[in-house]
Design brief:
The protein has a two-stranded antiparallel ribbon with strand order 1-2. It has 6 helices and 2 strands; from the N terminus they run E-E-H-H-H-H-H-H. The chain is rod-shaped, with a radius of gyration of 43 Å. 73% of the residues lie in helices and 4% in strands. A hairpin with a 2-residue loop joins strand 1 and strand 2. The chain starts with a strand and ends with a helix. By secondary structure, the protein is mainly alpha-helical. The protein has 2 domains: 184 residues, no CATH class; 46 residues.
């Protein structure tokens, strides 16, 4: 504030800065400060929220990885049991236990950008090393997903082939049995006794021994039993 003389009288006048009154300067400065302070606080709040979000996401991601260990081990055990069954030389119903909790969809749904921020930006260490480890982590997740899908497709393919082999085997047994019966009938029509035809006699004995296996409660039509007691002996005979 300054005092000036106007017409011989003292009067008070307001000081100014570049023609702007202090009140105006104060109002402008205060407004700017409030704006800047608000921006800083809002930015801090957002950064805090993002930090908390990434921390929670990291915990969630880590937990999903941990929860995968048991289902993977169960699926491995199921595959081992299945392959052991395949090695057994007997006809049986094949089935593979599908561990439904063995899946990585939830892991794959997590944005790679968030994972990059978590494991590359926020972690200490050389960027090249962190990037390499992060790439291996993502690669293993993709690999597990591929394995899970391939198990199902491979099993379906195996079952389809097995059914084809089973059908082919039964058709072959039917054809050979009908051929044998026809040969025996032709010999009878020609007056040739079975005992005088060494080939047919041998086939007849083999067939009789093969069918007799069923008396012990064994399914003689089982292709493994048929191979041992029928097909292999026929090969030797012929």
């Amino acid at each position: 504030m300054k005092i000036v003389v106007l017409n011989g009288e003292f009067s008070q006048g307001k000081s100014s800065f570049l023609g702007v009154s202090p009140d105006t300067v104060f109002t402008v400065v205060t407004t700017v400060l409030i704006f800047v302070l608000g921006y800083v606080i809002n930015n801090w709040v957002e950064l805090r929220k993002e930090k908390n979000r990434l921390t929670e996401l990291e915990d969630y991601f880590t937990k999903l990885i941990e929860l995968l260990e048991r289902p993977i081990r169960k699926q491995i055990d199921a595959l081992v049991d299945f392959t052991n069954k395949l090695k057994e030389k007997k006809e049986q119903h094949y089935s593979l236990l599908d561990i439904t909790t063995f899946q990585v969809e939830l892991l794959r749904e997590i944005d790679s950008k968030d994972l990059y921020a978590i494991f590359i930006k926020r972690k200490k260490g050389e960027t090249s090393l962190k990037t390499e480890l992060f790439g291996k982590l993502r690669g293993q997740i993709e690999h597990v997903d591929v394995v899970k899908k391939s198990i199902k497709s491979s099993l379906e393919d195996l079952m389809k082939k097995s059914e084809g082999y089973e059908h082919s085997y039964k058709e072959s047994i039917k054809i050979t049995s009908e051929a044998f019966d026809n040969m025996v009938s032709e010999n009878r029509l020609r007056g040739v006794q079975l005992a005088k035809d060494q080939l047919l006699m041998g086939l007849d004995n083999i067939r009789a021994q093969w069918i007799a296996v069923g008396q012990d409660g064994i399914v003689f039509q089982d292709r493994y039993i048929a191979r041992k007691h029928y097909l292999d002996p026929v090969k030797v005979l012929c």
